[in-house]
Each structure stands twice: as C-alpha cells, then as structure tokens.
Amino acid sequence: QVQLVESGGGSVQPGGSLRLSCAASGSISSFNVMGWYRQAPGNQRDVVASITSSSSTNYADSVKGRFTISRDVAKKTVYLDMNNLKPEDTAVYYCNAVSFPLGLRRDYWGQGTQVTVSS
Q1: 43 vs 22: CA distance, rounded Å
Q2: Does the structure show a pLDDT above 90 at 30?
C-alpha cells in the first residue's frame, strides 16, 4: 500500500513563502499524476496544482504565478513552492497521487498539512 506523507505546513504572514513536501513510500514514477489539493473549513477540496509523469504541470487560476509544483523521482517526493501567500490560501493541503491499474482510476491521499496565512 502506497503511503504519502506531507510536511512543510505552518503559519506565515501575507506575502511570505512556504515549501510543502510530499514523500511517497514507493516510486512516484508509477503514478500518472500527482498533485496538491486544499480544503478550507466549510469548503470542498479543490485541486491547486498537478504534475504528470512527463512533468507537465497545471495550476488553479488562483495560484498561477505564485505556486510551483515539481517532483524529484530519485527522492520520491513532490514539492509545492508557495510564494506571495495570501490569507485566502489558508487551508489544509493534501497530497494526491493517481494511477490506473488495469484501467481503473485509483487515488492515494496524504493526511494533510495545515497552512495558515495571517498577519
């Protein structure tokens, strides 16, 4: 069973930066897509950024130009660099990995890490 472990969350002032890490228990090359989602209290869980096995990236409009997703296959880790953080970025951030064994979608989730942006 694949495990994803997030780290790097915390509290920061508006305009600050954080780097989130998602370490996988196995090779991340086996995943078709990995990404970061976030969920604020009372809201649904929304995708923030994603990266495919060919390193193609995609971002939510609200974070374009501020967040960068990347991956290090050797370290089995996906990163989310967050710059110019805003109070509306406050949420629990979850790492997600998707594979398609036998053509069926399978999602894996981390436990989440809290990001709080406040002055």
Answers
A1: 23
A2: no
DSSP string, 62-93: GGTTTEEEEEETTTTEEEEEE-S--GGG-EEE
At 54-65, the pLDDT tens digits run 999 999 999 999
Token pair for residue 50?
A: 């994603």
For residue 96, what are the β-bridge partners? 35, 109
| Cβ proximity of 45 and 39 under 8 Å | yes
Please report the pLDDT score of residue 101 as a whole number. Answer: 85
The token pair at 62 is 């609200």
Distance CA(34)–CA(111), nearest Å, equals 15
* Mean per-residue pLDDT of the chain: 96
